[in-house]
Amino acid sequence: MGVEEHTQGPVATTATDGTEAATADLAAAAGEIETTASGTRYPIAPGYRVNVRTGPGTAYRIVRTLPYGQKIPIYCQKPGERVTGPYGTSNLWDNIANGQFVSDAYVYTGRDGYIAPRCD
């Protein structure tokens, strides 16, 4: 079982009619994935302020906290600690800047698994 990694926000729950409905509701509330000339940006789950850490796990130091409604770039992804969030349980961590990672369980990417190259 994963750990919760958000700093503030609603408690993730499973819908009585299935997880897909809950995930679809979160996706609609999260907004769109933005693709521009400067790259693609993915929304953080609505209602959450997510910790940004120096590595792929909750034992790594927090360097900042993303504000509500933030959209982030994902440069590469790395396996690490399993975390449970509004988009399920995942061991993927998204690199959003040099030495800065967020749990993929709090980022709406539109699918499970890797959506970016693996980090070295």
UniProtKB/TrEMBL annotation:
<feature type="domain" description="SH3b">
    <location>
        <begin position="50"/>
        <end position="81"/>
    </location>
</feature>
<feature type="region of interest" description="Disordered">
    <location>
        <begin position="1"/>
        <end position="20"/>
    </location>
</feature>
<protein>
    <recommendedName>
        <fullName>SH3b domain-containing protein</fullName>
    </recommendedName>
</protein>
<dbReference type="Pfam" id="PF08239">
    <property type="entry name" value="SH3_3"/>
</dbReference>
<dbReference type="InterPro" id="IPR003646">
    <property type="entry name" value="SH3-like_bac-type"/>
</dbReference>
